[in-house]
Amino acid sequence: MAKKDIKKALKDFWYGKPHSAEEGGRRLGDLHEEKTHLYKHREWRGVKDTMYYFYMIWLYNYIFMVKDVMVMGGLVNFAKGVWRYRWVGQTYLPVLHWFDRGLEGMRGPALAGSAWHYRAMVSTTIRQFQRMFAADTRLHGGKQNDLYKHTIAHNETVWGGVFYPWDGEITNVPLEMIPYFVTCHVNSHTVLNYIDAVQSIGLPGDPCPMCQAESGIFVLDDVPDYAKAVVTCNEACDASVSTSTLQDWFFDKPLFSLPMPMLVEDQYGIPFSWEKLVKKLELQNQLQRFEWEKWEVAGKSDYYPINGVAQALYRIYQTQYGDWEIWHVTDKKVRKILEKCVSKKINTFPQTRHRVIAWSCAPLYYSNWCTWAYNCWGLNVIINMDSLMFDMEIRTDSYEHTLEDMAQYHMWAPMRRMAVGGMKHMFELWEYMERFNCDMVAMYDQLQCKGVQGLHGLFEDEFRNRNVKAFWIPHALPDSRTVSRAEIRRLINDYMTTVMHEEPLDPSLLDFDDSMTW
User: Which terminus has fewer CB within 10 Å in the chain: N or C?
Assistant: First the structure.
């Protein structure tokens, strides 16, 4: 072997192969098995990053997943839950594969910053399904234990901050967030049987598949019975209203639609605490202020160490659940990484060709498309629409101001503001493009959302008038059968080659079969 070849091999071993289409560059597509898309072998990221991935992501998360299960409800409750509810094993077991997909190709601070966000989401998920199982009458001989009497269920789109006044007395756990929303991202096949189940009892196939899946969970009796009462809040669509109707029917327990959260006192006998509310809101405002700091770095520099999928999912988790200690712990770790990147001017995504903003509702079964798009084409998703929904602090200077801001915050939940919130909010896209210095739009096209479908032509006109580069991603939220991951990639490939006339950074990622992947 020539001296030059030996030198290059040693460099590739120490630092990892370069991210380029040149001969000798990394080919991430070659790592995967056909159809399942599982790794043939681990990705070599260079000595430092490979060791970091093994110890601080792979091994660390497996250890803490077990620890979380033991601390947050115990192994017995977990084993019962796995045996009783099919969505647990289908998402808990492949969760590290979820990390692999979302973090593929990442290096240095971008790898670390993104991974901490994933870790927080996993811990939060375990905390919630373990609380479900610990309080579940179906796992405890039909008995309502003390935890059952101090747990309240609610829609995933009911903001967790509604329950701040009863902090420490009542634990709130969303009905659908764990069995439905989380499962879509980790395992693209999990919710399909729920969609089929609700259609089997006569529901037409054209309403929003999210609502179909959330209803189908109840049809198949795959939801724990863990709370005395339920608080619901519909999205601005008929399908969501139908979901609550079916849930009320199947649950057969006190169910209240916002704005009536004060009925918590009647059901649980625990008084409203203004002091607890203010304390929790001020802690939540701390999280929001750090989010703005992150956005400032993302919008004005190349030093933002979080990839598009980690940023979007973490933000949805954090803002929907409300203030939890895990968010503060994570933000503290991420702040150190962020400040290091800024002070040392580290370009965290050096192969960026286009700064992308993703708009409208994303395909839940393929949230990691943006990781693929960066590795293949240099498309760096800086920010997502869902991340911007709760762009506000909540005042705590008076009772009236607090309730006013809480009401607005709740109105700005995912899909209520920008997806179906009217022309003004839908077209905030242009303001945020400027704020985050984006030159391209990834426009999601949820095929069964009647509201957004009506604006398709208006966006096309605006893209032309403003000379905005934009590509459309059709999808059906959780249903991967309507538009596959491969079809989404093909559409982006076609746009980048025929419209942008660009060559891929990694040709091995252009075309592959992942039809059986999680």
Answer: N
Tokens of 92: 């808990």
Q: Domain for residue 19, yes or no?
A: no
In tens, the pLDDT along 430-456 reads 999 999 999 999 999 988 776 666 778
- Quote the pLDDT of residue 450: 67
**Pairing label, strands 469-475, 379-384:** unpaired
Residue 381 scores a pLDDT above 60: yes
C-alpha to C-alpha distance for 355 and 436, rounded to whole angstroms: 8
State the alpha helices, DSSP H only, in 301-428. Answer: 308-321, 325-343, 369-377, 399-411, 423-426
Place of tokens 């989010």: 291
Token digits for 259? 């704005």
Q: Which of 44, 43, 52 is nearest to 11 (CA)?
A: 44
pLDDT at 253: 77
Determine, yes or no, domain membership for 4.
no
Provide the residue type at 272 as one letter.
Answer: F
Size of the chain, expressed as the number of residues it contains = 518
Residue 20: inside a domain, yes or no? no
Domain presence at residue 515? no
Q: How many domains does the chain have?
A: 1
Burial (0-12, 13-18, 19+ Cβ within 10 Å), 63: exposed
Strands (E), 116-247: 151-154, 171-174, 230-232
pTM, two decimal places: 0.93
Which candidate, 73, 95, 124, places its Cα nearest to that of 226?
73
CA-closest candidate to residue 417, choices 442, 390, 394 = 390
| Residue 354 β-bridge partners | 379
- Section 177-205 average pLDDT: 89
Element (H, E) at 446: strand 440-446
Distance, CA of 253 to CA of 142 (rounded, Å)? 15
- Alpha-carbon distance values, 301 to 4, 64, 311 (Å): 36, 34, 16
- For the sheet with 151-154, list strands across it: 171-174, 151-154, 230-232, 255-257
pLDDT at 329 over 90: yes
- Residue 170 domain boundaries: 28-509
Percentages (nearest 5) of helix, strand, coil residues in the chain: 55, 10, 35
